[in-house]
Amino acid sequence: MHIAYHNHVYHLVLPQEQIKMKKKCSIKAKDAIKFYYFKSVRKKDAPYLIYIHGLGGNATMWKEIEAENVKLGLNSICIDLRGHGISDTPEEPEHYKLERIAEDICAVIKKEKIKDFSFIGHSFGGSMAMVFCTIYNSPKPSSFVFIQSCYEYPYAKNRELNLNPLINIFFRKLIKMKIITNKVFPRIPELDFFKVIKENFIFQIFDELYYTPMKTIFNCLDASKEYTDKDGKKLVAMLKSTKIPTLIISSKRDETVPTTYSKELHKFMPHSELTIYEDATHSLPIERGIEVGQRINSFLQRG
Fold first, then answer.
1. Chain segment 245-272, per-residue pLDDT in tens
2. What is the pLDDT of residues 160-198, one digit of tens each?
3. Backbone dihedral angles phi then psi of residue 88, each to the nearest 5 degrees
4. How big is the chain by its Cα radius of gyration, in Å?
5. In the chain, where are the structural domains located?
6. Cβ atoms of 159 and 89 closer than 8 Å
7. How far apart are the first and last CA of the chain?
8. Could you tell me which residues come within 8 angstroms of residue 186 by beta carbon, excluding any fewer than 6 positions away?
9. Distance, CA of 100 to chain centre
10. What is the DSSP letter of 158?
11. pTM of this prediction?
């Protein structure tokens, strides 16, 4: 069987025939922050799928989705954003400005000499794909997949991630008092989110705090608010004018980024499709990874 993908034709193959050992790669950014990404090359001239995780996530969260996507014979790159996974976790807020994270993504594309690619982003990762295309006119992705992402900063003051204000105030106080820093815990191996999701809820929270410092999450949230205030209108204008095919995915039980944002995004993106899952939280790539991967394949095959 063959598929067409943006003027290319590829054999449809089984995952076990195509999944190769991922290559761990790294880049030192202009501000001396070292970040990592994991590359799988299945065919030299095939397009790439570039996966960008959300806040508190890492490259492992794409495991099931990528296992489905490799059936298309495409190459893949899963990025560990700065402050996440095994990438460096700087203390200073300026290192988490969205422009710098966009530079990191651009550096990966340039280093690997990628010409044809699609962005697949979850939550903050999808928002970063939007920011990237607002800042850079080239290279442009062949398609977008936004999973539970929003086009603007979605939280009121002290309601970050739509959590109880007392929780956010408590954590910000600990950060301000330097009780929580990005150096509290030593560097440890990458957390596998498919193991965490099976744990008791209390252990899930512990693992989140242990593997992704809370200070990193607040730095990224504050940077997102700053970018929305400064360049949010440019980002929306880009989305409204783009002709890039886009798949928007959401879930009704998502309380972190409510479905409203995906519906609004779909309304002003002329070349978009919207899929909403009934029974999933904000961890959709982990809870329904196989189904989401299959939905993405269907979208990509139509090109």
1. 999 999 999 999 999 999 999 999 989 9
2. 877 788 887 777 777 776 765 555 544 455 666 666 554
3. -60, 150
4. 18
5. 2-302
6. no
7. 16
8. none
9. 15
10. T
11. 0.85
| Half-sphere exposure (Cβ direction) of 173: Cα atoms closer than 13 Å | 7
Pick the CATH number of 2-302 from 3.40.720.10, 3.40.50.1820, 3.40.50.2300, 3.40.50.670: 3.40.50.1820
Q: Which two tokens stand for residue 28?
A: 């030192």
How many whole angstroms from its chain centre is CA 204?
A: 20
Residue that the structure tokens 């489905």 belong to:
68
Question: What would the two tokens of residue 38 be?
Answer: 């994991």
* pLDDT class of 17 with cuts at 50, 70, 90: very low
Please state the φ and ψ torsions of residue 239, each to the nearest 5 degrees. Answer: -65, -40
Strand partners, 119: 50, 144
Helices marked H in the chain: 15-18, 63-69, 98-111, 124-135, 165-176, 193-196, 201-211, 214-241, 259-268, 284-287, 289-302
